[in-house]
């Protein structure tokens, strides 16, 4: 947990399968965050491990935990230790490589998932201790998601009024917005909005946002 | 939430509240839930921890790597024979901590507290002392809440990650959390709780994180054992009226700075300390075959 920790149960928790909160439970949560970006079943997962993750992932079961997360398991699932085998049975290609991801937290991993429709998502997450995580990048955009709230991630053309329309869709659904963070690659080019909400928006709201003018893509992640 | 220990202690002194009461009230506010729900969440974790603290006392279970296991039952037998020099509830607390840790290394269910690598210290100390004192269920759950609140302050101002701050940040923080909770359970005030926590961290300032083969196993299990003794010792010191000469917040800040000064090789990378001793390297080979 980091400075955003606001609950007793960030410290007294999670209830988890051992042996390491940062390398097993935290790794699983990063995998789960990545898995939630895919709307079709995952067929390929590539994990690029940085720092302490790279040196010790096998010993801590981080490999099984990351795969278990992509499969959607929770941190206390007794099947975590069988996750790599489960991936094999489901025909999911899983690959682990060591990588230098630059000036990032010592426990950082980049997860690249390809789904059955050929759509690819790349998520970078840091396991900051005690099972807490921070997702620092999604599909090339900087983020700062802790999984405390459901999150909407849009990718859109950087035009006037897009954000207003997205916010309207969310508030029309009577969903409360907690934070909005915006980033763009270049003025007038692609931009992204990371919107944390109190409750997860329904699929039809996501569809409505997806059909907005200038919208390229919209993803949602529940709390993880 | 109080960012610093001194703010918390001042608030407790002013209002007459315990750390646990502050912790529970804030949890109700932040998570928008009832007092009953907070206690239910505490009780759910208590149940997992209690099971883990007893699981391997009589039945040795090997770790997934096969390198360790069986220490909790050895100590428990020694305790049954009446042989430990550790008096009162202390040897029992160590046996509980070892059992909890062995559940962790055999990929069983535990509660990270604050981390999995330090998961035996808080429950080991609290269960054994609560039994000794005949504490009520509510008192025990409140002690866990107090421990967690102290952990939140440490996490805010330093770190509880071994990869960031070494073992001082994991087993040191856990011992500080347990020490503070024990003082509260024994009727000490918030100032005394934080004194106990400060001393516990000072006692292991600079402790490195050097897991053999990168596994949360060696020397982690025994540091959970010593962490429990550290916590109980510091609670005794505080209850005797002994103060930490360096205030809690300054100790936490020093711990953060020391963590940053530790080389990467001594922060959970298995590149130094006992991990790279000839025996440590041989064990790594034994587990991973290279």
Automatic annotation (TrEMBL), chain A:
Q: Which UniProt keywords apply?
A: 4Fe-4S, Gluconeogenesis, Iron, Iron-sulfur, Lyase, Metal-binding
Pfam families for the chain: ACT, SDH_beta
**Iron-sulfur in keyword set:** yes
Q: Which SUPFAM superfamilies match?
A: ACT-like, Serine metabolism enzymes domain
Carries keyword Translocase? no
What is catalysed by this protein? L-serine = pyruvate + NH4(+)
Pathway given for this chain reads: Carbohydrate biosynthesis; gluconeogenesis
- Source organism, top-level taxon: Bacteria
- Ranges for domain ACT come to 151-223
Name what cofactor the protein needs.
Answer: [4Fe-4S] cluster
Query: Which GO BP terms, alphabetically?
Result: gluconeogenesis
Where would you find the membrane-spanning parts of this chain? none
Q: Single GO molecular-function term?
A: metal ion binding
Q: Which InterPro entries match?
A: ACT-like_dom_sf, ACT_dom, ASB_dom_sf, Fe-S_L-Ser, Fe-S_L-Ser_bsu, Ser_deHydtase_bsu
> What family is reported?
Belongs to the iron-sulfur dependent L-serine dehydratase family.
**PANTHER family for this protein:** L-SERINE DEHYDRATASE, L-SERINE DEHYDRATASE, BETA CHAIN-RELATED
Q: What is this protein called?
A: L-serine deaminase
Q: Which organism is it from?
A: Neobittarella massiliensis
Automatic annotation (TrEMBL), chain B:
Q: Which SUPFAM superfamilies match?
A: 2-methylcitrate dehydratase PrpD
Leader sequence range is none
Q: What is its EC number?
A: 4.3.1.17
Query: At the top level of its lineage, which domain of life is listed?
Result: Bacteria
Alphabetic keyword roster: 4Fe-4S, Gluconeogenesis, Iron, Iron-sulfur, Lyase, Metal-binding
**Gene3D superfamilies membership:** 2-methylcitrate dehydratase PrpD (1.10.4100.10)
Point out the coiled-coil segments of this chain. Answer: none
- Quickly give the catalysed reaction: L-serine = pyruvate + NH4(+)
| Protein name stated in the entry | L-serine dehydratase
The species this protein belongs to is Neobittarella massiliensis
């Amino acid at each position: 947990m980091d400075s955003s920790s606001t609950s007793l149960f960030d410290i007294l928790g999670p209830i988890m399968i051992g042996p390491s909160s940062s390398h097993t439970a935290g790794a699983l949560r990063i995998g789960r965050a990545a898995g939630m970006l895919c709307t079709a079943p995952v067929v390929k997962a590539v994990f690029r491990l940085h720092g302490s993750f790279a040196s010790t992932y096998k010993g801590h079961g981080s490999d099984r935990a990351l795969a278990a997360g992509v499969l959607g398991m929770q941190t206390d699932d007794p099947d975590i230790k069988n996750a790599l085998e489960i991936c094999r049975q489901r025909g999911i290609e899983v690959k682990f490589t060591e990588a230098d991801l630059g000036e990032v937290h010592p426990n950082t991993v980049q997860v690249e998932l390809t789904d059955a429709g050929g759509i690819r998502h790349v998520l970078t997450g840091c396991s900051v201790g005690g099972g807490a995580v921070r997702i620092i990048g999604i599909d090339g955009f900087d983020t700062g998601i802790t999984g405390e709230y459901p999150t909407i991630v849009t990718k859109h053309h950087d035009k006037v009024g897009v954000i207003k329309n997205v916010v309207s869709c969310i508030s029309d659904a009577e969903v409360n917005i907690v934070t909005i963070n915006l980033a763009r690659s270049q003025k007038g080019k692609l931009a992204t909005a990371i919107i944390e909400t109190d409750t997860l928006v329904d699929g039809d709201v996501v569809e409505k946002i997806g059909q907005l003018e200038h919208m390229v893509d919209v993803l949602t992640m529940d709390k993880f | 939430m109080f960012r610093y220990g001194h703010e918390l202690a001042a608030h407790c002194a002013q209002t007459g509240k315990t750390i646990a009461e502050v912790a529970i009230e804030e949890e109700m506010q932040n998570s928008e839930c009832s007092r009953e729900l907070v206690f239910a969440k505490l009780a759910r974790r208590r149940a997992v921890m209690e099971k883990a603290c007893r699981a391997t006392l009589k039945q040795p279970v090997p770790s997934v790597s096969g390198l360790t296991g069986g220490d909790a039952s050895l100590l428990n037998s020694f305790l049954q024979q009446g042989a430990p020099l550790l008096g009162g509830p202390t040897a029992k607390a160590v046996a509980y901590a070892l059992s909890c840790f062995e559940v962790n290394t055999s990929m069983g269910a535990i509660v990270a507290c604050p981390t999995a690598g330090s998961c035996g210290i808080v429950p080991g100390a609290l269960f054994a002392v609560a039994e000794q004192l005949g504490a009520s269920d509510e008192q025990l759950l409140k002690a866990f809440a107090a421990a967690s609140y102290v952990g939140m302050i440490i996490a805010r101002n330093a770190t509880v990650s071994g990869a960031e701050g070494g073992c001082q940040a994991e087993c040191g923080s856990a011992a500080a959390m347990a020490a503070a909770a024990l003082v509260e359970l024994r009727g000490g005030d918030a100032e005394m709780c934080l004194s106990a926590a400060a001393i516990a961290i000072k006692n292991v300032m600079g402790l490195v994180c050097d897991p053999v083969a990168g596994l949360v196993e060696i020397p982690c299990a025994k540091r959970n054992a010593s962490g429990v003794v550290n916590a109980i010792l510091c609670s005794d010191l505080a209850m005797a009226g002994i103060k930490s000469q360096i205030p809690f917040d300054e100790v936490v800040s020093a711990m953060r700075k020391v963590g940053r000064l530790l080389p990467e090789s001594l922060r959970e990378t298995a590149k130094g300390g006992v991990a790279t001793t000839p025996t440590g390297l041989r064990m790594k080979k034994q587990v991973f075959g290279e």
